[in-house]
Write a structure and sequence with these properties.
Elements (H helix, E strand, L loop, with lengths): L1 E10 L3 H19 L2 E7 L4 H7 L7 H5 L4 E6 L7 H15 L4 E7 L17 E7 L3 E10 L7 E7 L2 H18 L3 E5 L7 H13 L7 E5 H10 L6 E4 L1 H14 L7 E5 L7 E5 L16 H13 L3 H17 L13 H19 L4
Parallel strand pairs: 1-2, 1-3, 3-12, 5-10, 8-9, 8-10
Antiparallel strand pairs: 4-5, 4-11, 6-7, 11-12
Length: 363
């Protein structure tokens, strides 16, 4: 039997609660399939760990994580710990250290999911954002000069390398070609006269290698407007680190809210583990109450299945989530329900079991 080793970082707040439901789903699929299993190893890192030990993760944490097939992350954030510490000392440390230069965030409106837009059908919102995840505006380059003096100056530099820009754009073209979809590039070349002009130039260069892929290019402000007014024009989207971060949260609001938003940090060459996470925060105000929405973490679990080559199981998880939403009986309070976190996971497990039995699925 094949064993997939998954490093689990439940993190802070509601992280452990939602991640446990994702693990429940993964174990159920492995149990029914019978040809593979998951071996989960938990690490207690995060902001609460920082308050006790002064570090977000162990000094040899990256060496420990290298041994795994994937990393499954819950959430980070805790009162009293600055966000830049949690981001740079854990999340970005893993993303950059393992060269997870592709961030994948699906923005898909499932049937019965709440959508704030008028006259929108589910098929109108089905975007796949591919965000550069290793450099750009989040490269961490800059300086803080004359701190505390009247001539204080802060420099924050974006870094756009030829290698980094080419590989993310090429990855997006490959996905668009494989799925037979359009590819849209989002930049801001009219104002950022070096980095974004370069981005557009590289996009144009690589597009010549993919004449079969229909392309479009928008400024980020226009793209934000069009995501609201005409979301169906976006299929596969490629953009920079900062723009992708902002626009995918906008996409989450369109496609049911942050409780349904998942993200994958991919090292395509598989030289290092990839990391999968819901994109919501740690929500310390509801932590420990068993009312957190686990659907984003479960969607992230479906991305793990996709990454490991079990795309049909990944689709089954999403089909089950959609059926749960259509039923409308077992939902957490943020989705106008009264059910607990664990009850949502249990109901999804039941739905998947029924799908297995009705279709006699064996992959």
């Amino acid at each position: 039997m094949k064993t997939f080793k998954i490093a689990v970082i439940p993190g802070d707040g509601i992280g452990p609660e939602v991640i446990s439901e994702g693990i429940k789903i993964l174990n159920k699929i492995a149990e029914v399939d019978g040809t593979f299993q998951f071996e989960f190893t938990e690490f207690p890192w995060g902001c609460e760990y920082y308050t006790k030990h002064g570090i977000m993760m162990d000094d040899d944490g990256m060496d420990k994580l290298k041994k795994f097939d994937a990393v499954y992350l819950g959430a980070v954030g805790y009162p009293g710990v600055p966000d830049y510490i949690s981001l740079w000392d854990l999340l970005l440390k893993i993303r950059k250290g393992f060269d997870q230069y592709v961030n994948i965030r699906p923005i898909r409106l499932l049937e019965a999911a709440p959508c704030p837009l008028k006259d929108i059908d589910c098929e109108d919102v089905n975007m796949l954002f591919i965000r550069e995840n290793s450099e750009g505006e989040y490269a961490g380059a800059g300086d803080w000069l004359f701190k505390g003096k009247e001539n204080e100056v802060v420099l924050q530099n974006g870094v756009f390398s030829r290698k980094g820009t080419e590989r993310i754009i090429r990855y997006a073209f490959e996905v668009a070609r494989k799925e037979g979809k359009t590819l849209t590039s989002i930049s801001k070349a009219n104002a950022l006269n070096y980095s974004m002009v370069f981005w557009d130039q590289v996009f144009e260069e690589i597009s010549k290698e993919y004449p079969d892929v229909k392309t479009a290019s928008y400024l980020v402000d226009a793209a934000a407007m069009l995501m609201i007014k005409d979301p169906k024009r976006f299929e596969v989207v490629v953009t920079s680190n900062l723009f992708g971060d902002i626009l995918t949260d906008l996409g989450a609001a369109i496609a049911g809210g942050i409780g349904l938003a998942a993200g994958a940090n991919i090292n395509p060459e598989r030289q290092y583990p990839s990391m999968f996470e819901p994109i919501h925060g740690s929500a310390p105000d509801i932590a420990g109450k068993n009312i957190a929405n686990p659907l984003a973490a479960i969607w992230s679990a479906s991305q793990i299945l996709d990454f490991l080559g079990y795309e049909k199981y990944g689709k089954m998880v999403l089909d089950s989530v959609e059926q749960l939403l259509i039923e409308g009986q077992v939902l957490t309070p943020d989705m106008n329900g009264v059910s607990s976190t664990s009850e949502v996971g249990d109901r999804l497990t039941s739905i998947m079991t029924a799908l297995f039995e009705s279709k006699n699925l064996v992959f």
